[in-house]
């Protein structure tokens, strides 16, 4: 079941950034920070842990892409036992697998767990946006509205308003949906998203 649209390229870019640069960023911090030996030792320790996590993530992600029950279990175990960005990224991957299988409750749990592990605002925004889409698909408009309300990044506002409008429309609030779609059009968004928002706005205005 496809409930994710528009933001996929940005999501993939974020995941690639952490997969390719996450360890380097921490190592750079260790190298750049002088001071007490204990501090350097702790930073080095965190770097090693993150490096190990990155390697495990690659293995688990390959298993998960197979779609097997074993791959899903391995990913769930890794996500539960890891407390860093790779856990959050695994949660995103798990949610996609569950959504594709039509298991929206499983996708919601994977995203909720991932949100607790997300370390950056941008990652939190991605997860909240996808969580809102899942909650909307489950018919829980109030939960979807609560999730999109947590999205902070300016670049996500057009998509957030798109989902917000859908949630309000699901609740029967046509005027609220119209305002959300209008606000989405006034925010930064892709040409395709603007087309979708325009279509939705016209449909609400004419209904």
TrEMBL record:
Keywords: Cell membrane, Chaperone, Membrane, Transmembrane, Transmembrane helix. It comes from the Bacteria. It is a single-pass type II membrane protein. Gene3D superfamilies: Tetratricopeptide repeat domain (1.25.40.10). InterPro entries: SecYEG/CpoB_TPR, TPR-like_helical_dom_sf, YfgM. GO terms for cellular component: plasma membrane. The chain crosses the membrane at residues 23-42. This is Ancillary SecYEG translocon subunit.
